[in-house]
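User: Fold both of these, please.

Assistant: Here is the first one.
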Amino acid sequence: MHAQHSHVSARVRNELRRRIALEAARLITESGIRDFALAKRKAAERLGAYDEGSLPKNSEIEEALREHQRLFQAEEHPQLVRALRAAAREAMQFFAKFEPRLVGPVLEGTADRHSAVCLHLFADAPEELIIVLDEQGIDYNESARRLRMTRDNAVEFPVLQVTRDGTAFDLTIFPRDAIRQAPLDRVDEKPMRRASLAALDELLASEKRPDLR
């Protein structure tokens, strides 16, 4: 009897985790929340779930986000992602001397209308990038971001935010030798996937082939 009760409880908890993940995905898509932890907390509050054990993993939220986009944005979402990847390509050509790498939702295919094109750029000093923007008369906002390089080590990096033709660009500046070590991804805590311009070109080319999605 006890075993049966435990099985039912586990099933109920798993269903609640899935509902929270789906609600978090909806919030991310509609509200532009990019912080998975915040999205899952808000989703749990809306569903009246206060048990930490019922909260989904970030990977579950990402999968729910992909599912939400397939179901509710089947036509417009792929077009949006292609447009953002094309904008990323143009920016990467512009910043070619900084060995740009595309990261985040635009690369992963989970971007929405709130998403910025996120690039990692590599320079001996952040001022190198700032000089380029100033010379081109490009406005930017400066901030900083802490990224986990290992499970036990977080490092703060300068960030420049730029908007061009209605598209937001988020530029994180790393030392040149950091190109060999990607920070950990917030979803699975593995090294973040990063794409060079050549890799992005391959991705864009694959999207044009009728036999590939």
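And the second sequence with its predicted structure:
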Amino acid sequence: MHRLIPAGCVLALSLSAPTLSAQDAGADNPAVRKLDRDIPRHKEFLKRIEQTKGVGDVVFLGDSITHGWEGQKAWQEHFGPFNPVNLGIGGDQTGHVLWRITDGHELDQLKPKAAVLMIGTNNTGNNSAEQIADGIKAIVEDLKKLKPDMKILVLGVFPRGSRNDADKETKTIPADKLNKKIGEINKIISKLDDGKTVFYKDIGKDFLEKDGGLSGAIMPDYLHLSAKGYQIWCDAIKSDLEKLTK
């Protein structure tokens, strides 16, 4: 059974560098520069939120992995009571999410009790683990400013691997072949947990086999989740959301 990481990893002590706004840090780090996401799906979000009058206790922010909740049986069956709002867009990097919650105004009409953030995997090709972690930190800082009463559940970036490394018979990627940058990112962002507003949780191991390998049954392309994978995700955080939305 998972539990939220206890207080003790205080944000103010988590990073030795001074706290910078996303705009200030963006001068040196591409992962914290806002990237325009004024595309049809973003516009659809704004329209949908207006039509529902901003109803939603929990918002999910992320990329295609979050986007993929749409149509999943577990979404409505288990998250339905939270009136969840899916703000996931395929291909998003940290900079896109920064733009969407600020210049894109996706949260303006919402009054969520909690947000679930899982972002960063699309940055791994071009950014360092430290840069990506700073991008995630910038998002968290902006969320705190925009919605000071909202709790934030920061999820560790999910494990991923390359199809070329999968065993042809077992269709599983060995643990030592998984993307090592993911663990580096998660080690840094775990320190964002302040036990008050921001909570960190790494559910990555729940997707892995006993030997640490990644099965195609959970992630068919070793990145995106299957229905079974989404059920695992749901089971891993449902109790956390119940606590954070009280």
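The radius of gyration is 17 Å.
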